[in-house]
Amino acid sequence: VQRIVNELLQAEAMMVQPFQQSVVEYGELSLMVIGGEFTHAIRKIAKPGDFRVQDDFGGTVHPHTASTAEIDFALRAVESCSPRPIYARVDMIRDNSGELAISELELIEPELFLRYEPTAAHRLADAIRAARRERVAVVAFLTAGFPAKDNFARDLAELAAEADVVEIGVPFTDPMADGVTIQRSSYAALK
């Protein structure tokens, strides 16, 4: 394995993280938080023999009744953001030690799985209206190394000076869960 990793590192930039077995055994949970309140949850399950829970790869989505611990974990994750987002999707798994772990905190363009909790769409509209009466935060997304690797630090600093929050996307070769614009920026950043 180390030989393969060494060869890949010669040609590719990559992020390596330990495999979390619960993704295969149980899947990934997504808890939606709208207006600072938990609204609903879903469970994404990989198809047999795979670890990817996205439906692009044969994964399935199911309603989930979140536990108090899962809800508290999601709310703490969102409350740690400053400024506080109007909505968020907190994707979580159990790590190899059995502890809840965030796999992704989606703030920019999350699928909120509103079809599983129709009243959440009304809560989202109410939360947006309430935020417009107060202060609206500017949240930006930038793929690391895009549009040019040499200028990334400068571009990030300029963006951070104007935005309240900057989400940095780590480019990778198979960004199927992202939208077309982010996919294209990932591919370009890796060239």
Overall description:
The protein is of the alpha+beta class and 191 residues long. It has 6 helices and 7 strands, in the order ααβββαββαβαβα. It has helices at 2-11, 22-25, 68-79, 119-133, 152-162, 180-190; strands at 28-34, 37-45, 60-63, 87-94, 100-106, 139-143, 165-169. Strands 3-2-1-4-5 form a 5-stranded antiparallel beta sheet. Strands 6-7 form a two-stranded parallel sheet. A hairpin with a 5-residue loop joins strand 4 (87-94) and strand 5.
Quick gist of this model?
This protein has 191 residues and is α+β, with helices and mostly antiparallel strands. The protein has helices at residues 2-11, 22-25, 68-79, 119-133, 152-162, 180-190; strands spanning 28-34, 37-45, 60-63, 87-94, 100-106, 139-143, 165-169.
**N→C terminal distance:** 25 Å
Radius of gyration: 18 Å
Largest sheet: 5 strands, antiparallel
Helical percentage: 25-40%
Helix- and strand-based class?
alpha+beta
The rough form would be described as globular
pLDDT averaged residue by residue: 86
Low-pLDDT stretches are: none
The count of β-strands is: 7
- How many helices? The count is 6
**Looking across the biggest beta sheet, what order are the strands in?**
3-2-1-4-5
Order of helices and strands: HHEEEHEEHEHEH
